[in-house]
Write a structure and sequence with these properties.
The chain is mostly helical. It contains 13 helices and no strands.
Length: about 325
């Protein structure tokens, strides 16, 4: 790769990382700061944002390092830890989207029973299940060598090249991982949304406005999920069935992998584009940051007035809006 191409690629990957980290931090702050968003349903949104934030902080910088230099100076132990974190966090992100779609399905199909069905302990169980499955398909098989053709732990031993970090695949692992973490969740999400559409057509007048907004947002999340992750899992499955010794050496692999990563940067943008409450919270947080910066640098009220940022904005950010029920469906 020429130096110019390396610079352009580095800028592009850095932009994806910054959008992933910044966007998901903004989502978490928005839910914490706005009482309209501080509800039980949005626990799933915060969980998804926290997962994507960890992906942006703990995985994407090392993926960019490998992509740009094709060199791994951090040793085989940390390499396997990094790959395990990558698989775990991507899996948790995908499964959380599945949980969100099930939550929307219950809200639309059982509106009268929804508040009695979606309880805090059930939300906790759902999140614990997501992380249990994510751990089961990441750290356990990779650290035990169950994902390799010869049954040894990848990237370790005398036969493995130094300063390389490879994700090895065998047929049983690929089939188990792809079915549990992508194909079955994808079918479940499509089925739930199809059922929601049928109910929306037959009972359009009975579906309240907030449920309609939630349905539109869910459609956008599922659409982005399919566009971003389907190419990767198709290639992942094909290479795994062939038991390819080094999937990262396939030119298309890096492209579809980073397309999947981009899904974590796209979700916060979708919330702001499709949901008024998130958009308002984003605006208040941004205005508050501008106001605080101006106070620190200039400490001048006329400057704040020039930017039309009232001091009251700082207090509004922390949730002095309307109090809503804990099962309010904001997104």
């Amino acid at each position: 790769m020429s130096p110019n191409h390396t610079v352009v690629l580095g800028v592009l990957l850095s932009l994806i990382i910054l959008l992933t980290v910044g966007g998901n931090v903004l989502v978490c702050l928005a839910v914490c700061a706005s009482r309209r968003l501080r509800c039980l349903t949005n626990c799933f949104i915060v969980s998804l944002a926290a997962t994507d934030l960890l992906l942006g902080l703990l995985v994407l910088p090392f993926s960019a390092l490998l992509q740009l230099s094709d060199d791994w100076p951090l040793g085989p132990v940390f390499c396997n830890f990094y790959i395990s974190m990558d698989v775990m966090l991507c899996t948790a992100s995908i499964l959380t989207l599945l949980v969100i779609s099930v939550d929307r399905y219950l809200a639309v199909t059982m509106p009268l029973r929804y508040a009695s069905l979606v309880l805090p302990w059930r939300v906790a169980v759902a999140m614990a299940s997501v992380w249990t499955v994510s751990l089961a398909v990441s750290f356990l098989p990779i650290q035990m060598g169950w994902n390799t053709v010869n049954g040894t732990v990848q990237n370790q031993g005398p036969g493995h090249p130094e300063r390389k970090c490879h994700f090895e695949l065998n047929r049983p692992y690929v089939l188990t991982d792809s079915l549990l973490t992508f194909y079955i969740p994808l079918l479940a999400m499509c089925w739930t949304y199809f059922r929601i559409l049928l109910i929306a057509r037959t009972q359009a007048k009975r579906i309240i406005r907030t449920q309609h907004k939630a349905t539109v947002t869910l459609a956008a999340l599922i659409g982005a999920f399919i566009v971003c992750w389907l190419p990767y899992f198709i290639l992942f499955t094909v290479l795994g069935l062939k038991e390819h010794p080094d999937p990262s050496s396939v030119p298309e692999y890096s492209i579809v992998l980073w397309l999947g990563y981009a899904n974590s940067a796209l979700n916060p943008i979708l919330y702001g584009a499709l949901n008024k409450d998130f958009r308002s919270a984003y605006t208040r947080l941004t205005c508050a940051q501008i106001a605080l910066a101006l106070l620190k640098t200039a400490n001048s009220k006329p400057i704040l007035e020039a930017f039309k940022v009232p001091v009251e904005t700082l207090s509004q950010v922390w949730g002095k809006g309307n109090v809503t029920h804990r099962h309010h469906q904001p997104f």
